[in-house]
Amino acid sequence: MTRKMWGLIPVLDCSQLLKLCPSQCKLSILPITTPAPRADSPQRTMSDQAFVTLATTDSYAKGAMVLGQSLRKHNTTRKLVVLVGPHVAEPCREVLGSIFDEVCSVDVMDSGDAVHLALMKRPDLGVTFTKLHCWTLTQYSKCVFMDADTLVLSNVDELFEREELSAAPDPGWPDCFNSGVFVFSPSKETHEKLLTFCGENGSFDGGDQGVLNSFFNTWATADISKHLPFIYNLSSIAIYSYLPAFKQYGHNAKVVHFLGKVKPWNHSYDIQKGEVRGHSQPPELCQLHPDYLLLWWQLYAKSVVPLLQRAYGETSLSSGFFDANENQDKHEDVSGQAAPLAPPPQKVSSEERKQRWEAGQIDYLGDDSFANIARKLDSFLK
Ligand SMILES: [Mn+2]
């Protein structure tokens, strides 16, 4: 019965419908065939908003790769953009291109304020001025900048509800915002103003954070909605300096920021045991929280290393997995005796490790096969 009835209704295309309808009908039909984009439609929101990060070296590129994968893992609906400096190797750009929607090459724009940089003992910070280039991404209406040494622990798309310039307080000087995570609106005009401001005023800390805090100088007082909760930029240093607060609120953390000189990629990882191991810096310099460090390495091993292997050539990197052992065997052959046995690695449980870290005893020592893999990767990434 129903089928019969439907069979009687002629199938009309749009032009036939238009012919049948009085002229005002066009208004009701046209929007159906070509729906006008609405400002609040999710599709529009997805395509004109982006997370932006910056990679000036191959090491920071690794950080950017892990950050990008952490955003993907937590199903962001926004675009992913990475600004890449001229020193980043081609295979790294290739990997970044497979994780990010857009890879933008930018010139390194050093602050030139060498005295301040030296004072900060962070000569590498000068290049983060390249960050200011993010304001030129005018194909997007709103962006969230995230340092390559940050890691997303859950979906943070709600950050796009905030306006420029929204950021979390800096743990060292809470009247300043930390420039590791901030919401901004790309604009050629703002970009030019920032550059002019830099030229005239320099940076009080020799880095981008000083410039941005001087430029957006009402952040601390004007509008509380521009203060991002601390859980959107939780630095390990802050955890360490206010442990009771971390124990109370830390489980809500959404973004971890590996502030300081020692970065996750300066460590190595035992993929069999799932443990983070030694780094090149003395242990007392490292205050990264072991759980977050482990999360970073797990994501790196699972979602980034396979891409790097592909980009740098499967065979050369595969042999890299065994090079260390081969070398050791050769060494044994040459010396005619077994190499002296290293002390057996200490077995430390996750809980023990955490307790030690909380007591300030940060001890990442030891060597293992994945450390050698990482070294091999590093040798490719130089
Ligand atoms: Mn950072």
From TrEMBL:
Recorded superkingdom: Eukaryota
Reactions that this protein is recorded to catalyse: [1,4-alpha-D-glucosyl](n)-L-tyrosyl-[glycogenin] + UDP-alpha-D-glucose = [1,4-alpha-D-glucosyl](n+1)-L-tyrosyl-[glycogenin] + UDP + H(+); L-tyrosyl-[glycogenin] + UDP-alpha-D-glucose = alpha-D-glucosyl-L-tyrosyl-[glycogenin] + UDP + H(+)
Pfam families on file: Glyco_transf_8
Annotated region (Disordered), positions in chain: 328-354
UniProt key word Ribonucleoprotein: no
Locations listed in the record: Cytoplasm
Biological pathway: Glycan biosynthesis; glycogen biosynthesis
Cofactor requirements of the protein: Mn(2+)
GO cellular component: cytoplasm
BP GO terms, sorted: glycogen biosynthetic process
EC number in record: 2.4.1.186
InterPro entries on file: Glyco_trans_8 (IPR002495), GNT1/Glycosyltrans_8 (IPR050587), Nucleotide-diphossugar_trans (IPR029044)
Annotated signal sequence range: none
Keywords assigned: Cytoplasm, Glycogen biosynthesis, Glycoprotein, Manganese, Metal-binding, Transferase
GO terms for MF: glycogenin glucosyltransferase activity; metal ion binding
Function, in words: Glycogenin participates in the glycogen biosynthetic process along with glycogen synthase and glycogen branching enzyme. It catalyzes the formation of a short alpha (1,4)-glucosyl chain covalently attached via a glucose 1-O-tyrosyl linkage to internal tyrosine residues and these chains act as primers for the elongation reaction catalyzed by glycogen synthase. Self-glucosylating initiator of glycogen synthesis. It catalyzes the formation of a short alpha (1,4)-glucosyl chain covalently attached via a glucose 1-O-tyrosyl linkage to internal tyrosine residues and these chains act as primers for the elongation reaction catalyzed by glycogen synthase.
Record-stated family: Belongs to the glycosyltransferase 8 family. Glycogenin subfamily.
Protein's UniProt name: glycogenin glucosyltransferase
UniProt source species: Xyrichtys novacula (Pearly razorfish)
Organismal lineage: Eukaryota, Metazoa, Chordata, Craniata, Vertebrata
